[in-house]
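Exam prep: given the inputs below (a chain plus uridine 5'-triphosphate), describe the expected output before reading on.
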Amino acid sequence: MLEHVRSRLREFGQEHLLRWWNELDDPALAALLASIDRVDFALLGQLFQQSKDAPAAAESLRQKARRATPPAGLIRQPRSTADKAEWQAARDCGAALLTAGRVGAILVAGGQGTRLDFPHPKGMFPIGPVSGKSLFQLLAEQLLARGRRAGVTIPYYIMTSDATHDETVDFFRTHNSFGLDPNDVRFFQQGSMPAVDATTGRVLLAGKGELSQSPDGHGGMLSALASSGLLDDMRKRGIESLYYHQVDNPLARVCDPEFLGFHSLRDADVSVKVVAKRLPREKMGVAVDVDGQTQIIEYSDLPDDVAAQRDDQGEIRFWAGSTAIHVFSRTFIQRLVDQRTDLPFHIARKQVSYLDDAGQVVMPATENAFKFERFIFDVLPLARKTLVVEADRETEFNPLKNKTGEFSPPDVQRSLMALHRSWLRVSGVDVADDVAVEINPLFALGPEDIAARLTDLRQIESALAGSQHGVHVTD
Ligand code: UTP
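Solution:
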C-alpha cells in the first residue's frame, strides 16, 4: 500500500507528503494514506498551472465586465401601487407554495470563518443582542416559525465541512435542533481541497500526518448534494423550490414568501436577492448581464472605471450587490447534477501555515499558498432563466464577517436591534434608540405579526419602561 501511494505521489512530484511516515503510528499513517487517496493530484496540477496564467484570466474577466449591463430580469423594491400589487401577488404565491409543502431550505455552514477568528463554527457565534442566541438558533427558529405559519414542516438541509461538521451536528443535538424535528434537519458534508505552495505547487503539510486542507467553497454544494442522496429526499417530499442562505446573515428572511413567489411566478431556475451597494468600490459581487446572461461578477473583477459608472439619474450603474440569498428550483439543481456539471475553481493567494522540511510549523509573513474554492453563484450562467430581486439593505443584509468594524458582531447586532425596534414602532410602541431590543422569531417574523398582538404590546411597553439591560420579546 505504502509503495503504491509513494509511486503515485512521485508521478505528481508530491512524494514529500510521506516524508514523516515512519514517525506516525498505524492509525495516523492510515489516516494520512486515506486523505492522500482522496486528492485529485492531476486536477491540482492543472489548477496550479492556471494560477500562473491567473493575470491573463483575470484580465479576460475584466474585459468581460466591460461588456456588462445592469440585469434585465429585475424586480425592484415596490414603489408604485402597481408594484405593491405585484409584490402582494408574489407573497400570496409564496405562501401557497409553503402551505403545499413545496419548499425546502439550504443553509451553507461549511466555511472556516477565518476573518471572524472564532474558535468554533461561525453558526455557533452568540449574536442575539439581548438573548445571546447563536446564528444557528436565530435562523432555525425563523424556519420553525415559517413552517408553523404555513402548517407544515420545512426541511432544513445544512451543509457542513470537515472544519465544522462534528461541532455543528453536536450543537444541534444538544439544543434539540432548536425545536425543529430532527428528521427534518439533514446534514451533508462538502469536500476539501489541499492548499499548495505558490512557488512549487507542492501540497502543504499541516502536520507530519496531515495535509493542509480547507473546504472547497460554497460551490462544493453541488457535488456534496449529489453524493449525499438528499436530492432524492427532496423529490420524495415534493419539494420544488430551495431557499438558499448563508450562515452569517441573521437578517436573512428565511423562506420569505415574496422571494419564493417571484421565483415561481417568473418561472426562474435561479433567483438572487440583491441590495444597493453603498459605494461603487464596495467589496460585493454585483449582479449584471453579460452577453444576455445574468451572472455575478466579483468585485475584484470589476474594473474601477466600470464600478464608478453612473446612470442618467446619477445612481451607481452596477448597484446590485449580491446578498448570496437565492432560490433554486430543485429540478435545476438535479439537472446540473445529472449532467455532472463541474463548477470552476477560483484561485486565491493566501497566507497558510505549514510544516517545513525540518518538521517545524512555519507561519509565513506573506501569502505563500494557493487555495482553491468553488462559488455557488457560478451556476447562474447555466440557468435557463435567472431572476434578480431587490431587497432592502437595512432590513435584510448585514452578515457577520469580521472581528471589528463593518460586519462585526456589534455592527450586526445594531442592525438586528434597529430592525426589531422599527417593527415595534410601526405598531405604535414607543421605544428609544438606546434600548436593546430583540424579538424572538417565534413571536414575530415581521411587523405584521406584532400589530395583531395588542395585549402583548402593552406588556412589551411596560417591559421596555422597566428595563435596564434590554428586552427579549418572546412568548
Ligand atoms: P465566506 O466566503 O464569507 O467565508 O462564506 P467564511 O468561511 O464564512 O469566512 P472567511 O472568509 O474564512 O472569513 C460565506 C458563506 O459560505 C459558507 C460559509 O459558511 C458562509 O455561510 N461556506 C464558505 C461554506 O459553506 N463552505 C465553504 O467552503 C466556504
